[in-house]
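Q: Convert this sequence to structure tokens.
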Amino acid sequence: RFFPAIPELRTLGGTVQSISGSTITINADQSPNPLESWPQTRTITVGDATRIIVQMPKDPAVYQQELSAYQRQLEQQTIVGSAPANPLNVAMPPLMFEEKEIGVDDIAVGSRITADAAENIKEASRFEATRIMVQSSAQAGVGIPAGPGGVPVPLPIAPPPPALPGTPANP
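A:
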């Protein structure tokens, strides 16, 4: 089957359309299966136990220090050319971001969010989130340089290599 049905959905992304108290209305992302249709407008309730998190990029100097410490730890765990002494106890690399807990009031209309739920929300137009991840504005353009007015611009594509002598030019 080219487009298998998604039996259950517990995580949903979308763009914030409005916020009223502890209720967030989003325009949900479409199903990856073009033969399935989901409710586009979803209402998410933020309960007392809901964690709202934003991931912010770490300071490059802090990240570099953590990366150096990780590399030293890896060297101590392994002998060059061999597997780690205990493969279940391998150091985890540092993350390039840090998570910060925020409140509903810190979410802006137009923000991209991902909401997790404890139950299947595939067909639900309303649900309570257990966790909401807000995409920081810094994440939206990771690796893409800003152009005039701060709008991300695509990276330039390298020109094709020159033709070899005696061959026709590259198309």
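Strands lie at 11-20, 23-28, 41-57, 97-101, 112-117, 126-134.
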